Amino acid sequence: MSLTNFRTSDAPAPATFPALQQKKHSGQPITALTAYDHATARLVDEAGIDLILVGDSLAQVVLGYDTTLPVTVDEMLHHTRAVRRAVRRAIVAADMPFGSYHGSVDEGVVNAIRFIKEAGAQAVKIEGGASRAELVERLTTAEIPVIGHLGLTPQSVHRMGGYKVQGKSAAAIGALLHDAHTLESAGAVLLVLEGMPREAAARLTAEVGIPTIGIGAGPDCDGQILVFHDLVNLTFSTPAKFVRQYGDAAALFRTALENYRRDVEERAFPSDAESYHLPKDAAAALERA
Ligand code: KIV
Are strands 146-151 and 212-215 parallel, antiparallel or unpaired? Predict the structure, then answer.
């Protein structure tokens, strides 16, 4: 048996980082979304999205924390596995949670390997700029594709003094450019640009060779990413300026749930057609008993 399986079917080609790089070169937008569980990851993949990020935003939108800081490596692994089992085409990337790479580069490498080996992720994302260069280099040497994350980095919420748009001056944009170039030189395959002026993201996108994926960074990035729960109105909070809601799952679920409760209370559910029945002879025997 050959160790290499070349594609022979007509199934859509799996998304790859070289394919995303090609999209940047040909000016084709890259699509990305977060997902945290099997059902939604399946829907995202079937919609033809290029990259699925198991984001640490799951701390907030799935686990109900106020920030992304409390989520653990084991919790992220658990959700990454569920997503992995659902996805056929998209790239599955996992967020390295706060504390999993901040202590030392060695610890970051060990934790990143867990996401690839134990959860089937194809890449990891880490927040931060030039200070992460050594970690990016080590992961790249270990054959792990790394996605950088610049601008509003939620794991730095306390240092930033809240969730604030970053890169609002020429000097701040200069620092972001330095970070972006340093991460690219260290081997990063993609950069997420979050919460920065459109002009800053456009400049970064034009200057780096690797694709940029924006969230709250305007339309000039090489691609866009949103949090799944924002897109379908499942966050129970006022959406940020950059969010566009493409559906109202809260309304859909609420109606379904209220209708279910009413039907049960009125004995309208289940109907006879939704019930199992005894075979005729067993029903007759029951009547006689
Ligand atoms: O955790 C997350 O959802 C993210 C996206 C905002 C890119 O990092």
Answer: unpaired
Burial class (CB within 10 angstroms; exposed 0-12, middle 13-18, buried 19+) of 21: middle
Q: Which residues pair with 125 in a beta bridge?
A: 95, 147
**Residue 228: both structure tokens together:** 């799944």
Average pLDDT of span 138-152: 98
Residue 127 CB–ligand 1 contact under 6 Å = no
Q: Is the CB–ligand 1 distance for residue 194 below 6 Å? A: yes
Pairing of strands 91-95, 30-34: unpaired
> Ligand 1: which of 91, 156, 194 to mutate, judged by most atoms within 8 Å of the beta carbon?
194
**CA 99 to CA 239: how far, in whole Å?**
28
- d(C-alpha 213, C-alpha 188), whole Å: 13
Asked if pLDDT for residue 160 goes beyond 80, the answer is yes
Instruction: For residue range 208-227, list pLDDT tens digits in order.
Output: 999 999 999 999 999 999 99
Residues that are catalytic = 194
- CB proximity list for 255: less than 8 A, separation 6 or greater: none
Measured between alpha carbons, how far apart are the two ends of the chain, in Å?
63
| Whether the CB of 95 sits within 6 Å of ligand 1 | yes
Pocket lining: 230 vs ligand 1, CB cutoff 6 Å: no
Q: Dihedral sign, CA of 271, 275, 280, 286?
A: negative
Q: How large is the angle between the packed helices 198-207 and 170-186, nearest 10 degrees?
A: 30
